[in-house]
Amino acid sequence: MAAKKQDQLDILFPAEPFECGAGVLLVNPFKFGQFKRVLQVLKRYLAELEDSENPRSFVQVMLDVGEEALDDLAELTEMSTGCDRNFLEELPGHEAMNLFFKVAEVNADFFVQTIQEGSSRFSSRIEAKSKATDS
Fold this sequence. Notes:
Layout: H1 2-12, E1 16-20, E2 23-27, H2 35-49, H3 58-65, H4 67-81, H5 85-90, H6 93-134
Antiparallel strand pairs: 1-2
């Protein structure tokens, strides 16, 4: 049963290939069990990026955070690809950065599609029930 559900998830949210000198890696959406850690990492950067009084680019925020930013990017990439830190450290710099952006792209698409659709359905149900009780 669990294998069937996993196959269904693979169809809904397939892994996306990323080609690099070491071969083809599969970039997956984060697993539910990883969400807590992913949100902990992202929270630091989102607060900085959303500061309307002091707008800064993603690169500026990363530079301000320093070496920890690279560790965070590597950790998120490990979670999404299954590659270990040693593998990532051996990638040429441009490939590593492109891989980091691919992980962000795949997971942003997943979160936007899943969360927005789920939130819309939930809001519609609440609104419909609210109108039904008002009548």
